[in-house]
Design goal:
Pfam families: CHB_HEX_C_1, F5_F8_type_C, Glyco_hydro_20, Glyco_hydro_20b. By secondary structure, the protein is an alpha/beta fold. It has four domains: about 30-155, Chitobiase, domain 2 (2-Layer Sandwich); about 160-460, TIM Barrel (Alpha-Beta Barrel); about 485-515 and about 520-575, Immunoglobulin-like (Sandwich), CATH 2.60.40; about 585-715, Galactose-binding domain-like (Jelly Rolls, Sandwich), CATH 2.60.120.260. An eight-stranded parallel barrel has the order 10-11-12-13-14-15-16-21, surrounded by four helices. The relative contact order is 0.09. The model is unreliable at about 1-30 and about 515-520 (pLDDT under 50).
């Protein structure tokens, strides 16, 4: 199993203290007063009175391009977060409430934030450092119910420069609105960059002017330019990716006269290579702020590895002339001599098989950890399966030096590769592969937040309960600052998974009410089919009832123009068949997370996609224990397990009266001729309080180490 970082299970009183303070005159700051994610590197409290926030917060900043724009954005979210009570106003006075200074000696992402009775002082050397400081300030203000901020000094900087989230736009489209929403989350939680996987065999999301037949017709050049501006203003870098020579079918299909007919031919064709360079030039022009360009490099099936390496080196040399660094996925093996990939090429190691991470480091490469376990978030084709670990598993096991797979058939599952600490390990990438927009927020955002904290400082002392406590405050702040409309629903069985029973009444309301602005004139427009609301969508006037699955999207409009981000909520209706386990408490020996929480197996839903997702079920089985809450007679258990393409859940059923001594009463350990989603197990009547499923995972489709049980019914 993957080595866990050291955890310090501290007593509650100690755990709620955010940081030890280094000066003799300082005092502790409790986490209840300082709920920040990721945890700052250093916090000091010199004592003294807190800062009482005035209604008008004057702000002075140096005349550095982009800084005033960023402060204006910060002020907009501050005003929304505080219901308009606190407004930011520019000033030229040094005694301004918010004083921003340029500190060129600080590293690009470092910042200091000092708060005393009269002033907030920020020091940074770049817009990234400034953005990290304002994100911390938004969390401090919005995460508390008080109107004050304790006196403190924060000195903060990430331990790792590369902290990246990747979005696969080459399989399914993702809207500009969703990308902006994501960039704001990355700003708020200090994730440095977003990689856009723009090309693949299914679609090309990049609007090339040189090769217009490639484009999928979704996001235009002007929209990408606006997205680049939007990201830069928030201290987030957009890294574009062109995937070659693998996953290049659409290049070759649409322009065979340029890119040739096979991947092998592409690597050998001067005309094809010039075409690739033209596409790279277009990407550089559209995303000029990125120091990196990703050129793919993996899964080039059938292309000789020496040709793959030659192509990587050719494109790397070209990108170097354009002032860019080259990123590639783990692809061909190391090679040797003149056919070895140049050591300046940065590798994202994702399965550590073709080119193991320790060999990459030994060969002089900088390496980014993108390990399947715990970082890959995948919505697999044919759109009926998911592979991702839980937020808690990510938080507790994410390690810069450990490279592990989730597939038991791959050697790095049982024997992860451990790399000695080195400055060649420069950071992490969390990829979202193949996913659909309707699943995006619900599945990625809860996992990005723990990723953000660990990626900022992998050596942090990890206590998931403390992390959850802080996150509960920061998420309230983020919701208030970025999402004007709140979506509320009744009869919820699993609120975080969006599961309701039979029917739900949905209410939409403005989170804040600002009597001093036009926000009182806001209209809420909504849809229930997942489409983006427009000014012509249904006007919300009163609560409405749903009796089926729905994706609610709600946006506030003023004078026909949207404000803030639209809110989203996936809702799933269940109407459970009466049985002894319905709505009963259930626990798992491993962690789970939305929308696949362990409570799904007793929520009443039997839809094949409404499953619990547990990992790992190998080498040790997962134990799922249902408490019937009283001893009673049991003689049947029905298990609804995910099934697609012949897959089946391998499990046994055990019962107990005391929760300690269990006896096996039924099992399904061999693949049946015709796997089905429902299996009924009968046994002699017995007295039972606890029913336990001992599962070894869903076998025969994608990765066998995940359990996917939909529902368990007990009679």
């Amino acid at each position: 199993m993957i080595p866990h970082p050291k955890f310090h299970r501290l007593p509650m009183l100690v755990r709620c203290l955010l940081a030890y303070l280094t000066l003799a005159s300082t005092t502790f700051i409790a986490a209840a007063e300082l709920s920040v994610v990721p945890l700052p590197t250093k916090v000091e409290s010199p004592g003294g009175a807190a800062l009482i926030l005035p209604n008008v917060i004057t702000a002075k900043s140096p005349a550095i391009p982009g800084w005033s724009d960023h402060l204006e954005i910060f002020g907009e979210h501050l005003g929304r977060m505080t219901a308009g009570k606190h407004q930011l106003q520019t000033s030229d006075e040094n005694d301004s409430v918010l004083l921003v200074s340029h500190a060129p000696k600080l590293s690009p992402e470092a910042y200091t934030l000092s708060i005393n009775q009269t002033q907030i002082q920020i020091e940074a050397s770049s817009i990234k450092g400034l953005a990290h400081a304002t994100a911390t300030l938004l969390q401090l203000i919005g995460g508390n119910d008080t109107e004050s901020i304790p006196a403190m000094r924060i000195e903060d900087a990430p331990e790792l420069s590369y902290r990246n989230f990747m979005i696969d736009m080459g399989r399914n489209p993702h809207s500009v609105a969703l990308l902006k929403e994501t960039i704001d989350l990355l700003w708020f939680y200090k994730i440095d960059s977003v990689q856009l996987h723009l090309t693949d065999d299914q679609r090309i999301a990049f609007p090339s002017t040189a090769f217009p037949k490639l484009w999928d017709g979704k996001v235009t050049r002007s929209e990408f330019k606006e997205l680049e501006r939007y990201a830069v203003q928030r201290g987030v870098t957009i890294i574009p990716e062109l995937e070659v020579p693998g996953h290049s079918e659409l290049l070759r299909r649409n322009y065979p006269e340029v890119f040739d007919k096979t991947g092998t031919d592409l690597t050998k064709s001067p005309k094809a290579i010039e075409g690739i360079k033209t596409l790279l030039d277009e990407m550089i022009a559209l995303f000029p702020s990125s120091p990196f360009i990703h050129i793919g490099g993996d899964e080039a099936f059938g292309v000789p590895e020496d040709l793959q390496r030659d192509l990587i080196n050719e494109l790397h040399a070209y990108l170097k002339t354009r002032g860019k660094e080259t990123l590639v996925w783990e692809g061909p093996a190391a090679g040797s001599g003149d056919n070895r990939v140049h050591p300046d090429v940065i590798h994202l190691n994702w399965r550590t098989i073709n080119y193991p991470a320790d060999q990459m480091v030994n060969n002089g490469h900088r390496v980014i950890n993108a390990s399947w376990d715990p970082l890959y978030l995948v919505d697999h084709y044919p759109r009926t399966n998911f592979t991702m670990t839980s937020p808690q598993h990510i938080y507790e096991t994410m390690s810069l030096t450990t490279f592990k797979h989730v597939n038991p058939q791959i050697q790095t599952f049982a024997k992860p590769i451990e790399v000695d600490p080195t400055d060649k390990l420069i950071g992490f990438c969390m990829p979202w592969w193949e996913g659909r927009e309707e699943n995006f927020v619900q599945q990625t955002f809860p996992r990005l937040i723990p990723f953000a904290e660990v990626a900022w400082n992998p050596e942090i002392e990890r206590d998931y309960q403390d992390f959850q406590e802080r996150t509960s405050h920061t998420e309230l702040a983020r919701m208030a600052g970025f999402y004007p409309v709140s979506v509320e629903s009744t009869r919820m069985l699993l609120d975080q998974d969006g599961v309701f029973e039979q029917s739900t009444q949905v209410s939409l309301r403005m989170r804040t009410s600002n009597s001093d602005s036009a926000q009182t004139e806001a209209e809420i427009r909504y849809t229930t089919d997942g489409s983006e609301p427009t000014k012509d969508s249904t006007l919300y006037q009163e609560p409405f009832t749903l009796t089926d699955d729905a994706t609610i999207r709600a946006t506030a409009f003023i004078a026909g123009a949207p404000i803030g981000h639209g809110s989203r909520r996936n809702l799933t209706m269940v109407n459970g068949h009466p049985n002894l386990a319905l709505h009963k408490p259930v626990t798992s020996s491993t962690t789970s997370g939305p929308p696949f929480s362990v409570q799904r197996i007793t929520d009443g839903g039997t839809n094949n996609l409404g499953f619990y997702l547990g990992y790992p079920a190998d080498p040790d089985p997962i134990l799922l224990t249902i408490d019937l809450e009283a001893v009673q007679t049991v003689e049947r258990v029905k298990v609804f397990a995910y099934s697609v393409s012949g897959s089946f859940e391998m499990y046994s059923i055990e019962t107990s009266t005391n929760g300690v001594d269990f006896e096996e009463v039924a099992s399904r350990l061999e693949k049946p001729e015709d796997p089905t989603s429902l299996v009924e197990h009968r046994f002699s009547p017995r007295q039972v309080r606890y029913v336990r499923i001992r599962t070894q995972g869903n076998k025969g489709y994608v990765f066998d180490s995940f359990s996917k049980i939909v529902e368990v019914q007990v009679f």
